[in-house]
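pinging the channel bc i need a second pair of eyes. not urgent but kinda urgent?? the chain im working w is below, pasted from the shared doc
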Amino acid sequence: MSEAADHLRVALGQMCSATTHAPNIAVMQEFARDAAAAGADLLCLPEVAGLMCRDREKALAQVKTASEDPFLDAARNAARRHNLWIQAGTTPIRPEGAEKFRNHAVLIAPDGDVVAAYDKIHLFDIALDGQAPIGESSRFDAGDQAVLVDTPWGAWGMSVCYDLRFAHLFRDYAKAGARMIFVPSAFTVTTGQAHWEVLLRARAIETGSFIVAAAQSGSHEDGRSTYGHSMIVAPWGEILLDAGTAVPALHICDLDLSRADHARAQIPNLSNERPYQLSRKDARTKARNPNER
């Protein structure tokens, strides 16, 4: 196998996706054109880049299988037209005969071929204080396959949004050799303000990987508000790019992926890992008075 290239120019696209495909396709096409003009190798888009629509009936009228999806088809054409790698964020697709959607991410090569596809594993079923519960699993089925793809720049791992809170997934990718991990996202404003940056930096530091996280931002047609702040974080934890909240917006960042190798050589926590047993003790019968014997 040939040696991996180190230098990668990434275009990070921040969106405020609509409830129909057409306006989202138009934004993606503009991003692809501008990314290519800037000499980017790779364009990255956020979660639900193709379609953000909580209205099930409206979504059902538009959502197709992956091979028929208009957003993915347009992204493949854009990759070919501009000789560009595209991580197309995600878009909802509906496998043949399925009752629910899949939150579907793809990586597209410059010839337009889909070289990797990933369905979001961890679904966003949460209950924030003072807000209505969010139950992604009521509309989506979870994926069950982590996906690592070998590219000319080495291995890249695929994840989506809420997956960010499951550190073992990122560690498994890093142990398998991932130098970079995608986290296309649509974080809520509440969780974004509290957790977004610290989680991205933690995943980068603990795995020695580049974390590339394109995000949704702003007030959406379907009533949602998202946090923005698309980021790229280096393996040592530095924030290389923070896109703020403006949309639509495209940002360019040059990466030296050898920094992942260097970070892991300095702090080899992936190889320092040791097996252990978890023991549990019961101290409930101890005296409440610490001076009592």
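so The mean pLDDT is 96. and The longest strand covers residues 85-93. — does that match what u expected or am i reading it wrong
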